[in-house]
Design a protein that fits this description.
By secondary structure, the protein is α+β, with helices and mostly antiparallel strands. It has 13 helices and seven strands. It has helices spanning 23-34, 42-50, 58-78, 94-97, 115-131, 135-146, 161-187, 191-204, 209-221, 225-243, 249-259, 269-272, 285-296; strands spanning 2-4, 10-13, 16-17, 39-41, 98-101, 104-107, 113-114.
Length: 297
Amino acid sequence: MDIDVLGALDVRENGMSVAPTAPKPRQVLALLALHAGRVVPVAALVDELWSDRPPRSARTTLQTYVLQLRELIGTALARDPGPAGGDGQRRRTAKDVLMTLPGGYLLSGDDVSSDIRAFERMAGTGYRAMDAGDFAGASRLLGAALDLWSGTAFADVQQGPQLSMEAKRLEESRLCALDQRIEADLRLGRHRELLAELTVLTSRYRTHENLHAQFMLALHRSGRRGEALGVYQRLRTTLVRDLGLEPSPRLHRLQHSILAAADCAPVPSAQSARHAQPGPAAEPGPLRRDRRLAQAS
C-alpha cells in the first residue's frame, strides 16, 4: 500500500487508488492513512467528521463510510487476487486491509509506504548530519525530504479538528526542515543561489525571523548590503505595526554587524536548532518564537 498525504491525498493498493471523491469518506481515509498501522478510535473519527456536534446516527453513518472504503479496497484487491487454496494461504479481503478492532479501525497493508514516514526519516537523518558538521549531506538529505511535498498536507481534503491539527504539525515539521536546509546551504557558501528562494519565502512568511535573518545574510554575502538592511527594516515595520513587537536581539545584532560591514557569522539558529526528530517537540527557540508570531498575525 502506498500512502501520500504531503499534498493531495492518494492511497493506492495494487497500484490502484482507493481514495473516494465524496468529502466525508475522504476525511475518514485521510485520518486512517495518517495513522496507518495504528488503531484510530471511533471517537477520533466522529470528532473529525462532526466536531462537537455529531448527529445521533454518527456511528451508523461512520460504518457506512467504512463500507464504502472497503468496496474501493476490494476492487483494488481484485486486480491481484494473490495466492489461495493450494499453499494454505487465503486471499486478502477488504476487511484484512481496513480492519474493525475493539474501539476503532485500523488501515493495514503489505509493505506500507508512507510519504510522511519517508519525510520524517530523511529529515531526522539530515538533522543529525547538520549536528555532525556534514553540511553537504544535510543539504542533500533535507532537500530530498522536502521534495516529497507537493503542496500543503491534505491539500484536497476537507479538514475537521483532527486533520487540521495534524496539518499544522506537519507544516511546522516542513518549516523546520526548510530552515535547516537553507542553513546548510549558507554554510556551503551558496548565498547567491538562495536569493530567489528566500525572496519568495520572506514574502510568504512575513514575520518568520529566521528566514529573514538568512535572507539578510545571503544578501550581505552577495555584496548587497543595502538590500540586506532593507529586509531588516521591512521585518521591523511589519512586527511593530501588526504585533507591537521589536525584532529579536539576534536580528538586531545581525543588523549591527551588517551596518559595520563586519564579517558576519552564520545565522545562530544553526547552533541552536538541534533536532533528533522533526516536529514541534524538537523546535529550537527561534522557531518557537516564529510560530507564535505567525499564529498572532
